[in-house]
Give the backbone structure.
Amino acid sequence: MWNEDADSLNETLENQLENLKHSTSWNPRGRFLEVATDGSNEQAHLLAANICSVLWQVARIINVVVLILNQFAYRPLHSMSTTKTKAADRLNLYTWFPFKLRACGEVHDVIQLDKWVFENKGRYSENANLYPAKVPKNFMNFPIKLGTFVMKPYVIMTKNYTQNDGSTAYKLTGLSVEILKFVCEKMNLTTVFLGASLNFELDSFVKLIAELDDGISDVLTGSVPLLPVLVTSSFEAAIPYIPFNVKMLVPCPKAIH
């Protein structure tokens, strides 16, 4: 990342992500290495936290290592002839863990995984695993926001009610809902059902997809049409438990003169 034609590294990173999201090789669950090549007055760990936050907000990317050159290091990348290594001769590598107590899905801070020093032809200081596992088996009752596309028997709304804070809560059942509840219970996640769509229309479906894209909801369940232009090209779709196909019948084509 660099400040070539953008106002900030944030803008550069966001532009890169938008371009990558339209690539056929796009995989937000892959391993990312972000290299900040410009010097910055911002402290290294704060810059790394900001980069991790952008990656999470834009595409829910967690397998990321941020490499930041020490802001005083403008030395050529070659081995040093002396064993005395200054503090400036470092490449610092940072990452973050999204599921920690009281910090679910929010980038509060990063940790320094390792650092590369240039002495003895170059080496890692700690030789740490740069891409450790970050998804726990127990989510410690973290909330997961669920959007639903109501269609019997997959999603059935039984009732809604007003909570103490004035917000509306929904009680749902159905095949898709019960499967999801079972999974969340096993992973110790607290399910929060958002406003359910009660009509099977394209506008309602597009609205739910937009909420998923904006991070308002975490998961969309129900009778979800796997349209390539909206769903499978941008989101991770689970294997359907009860699949069905919709076909459009059109007149046979005729030869063009």
The chain has five helices and ten strands. The first strand starts at residue 32 and ends at 36. The chain has a mean pLDDT of 80. Residues 147 and 195 are 7 Å apart (CA to CA).
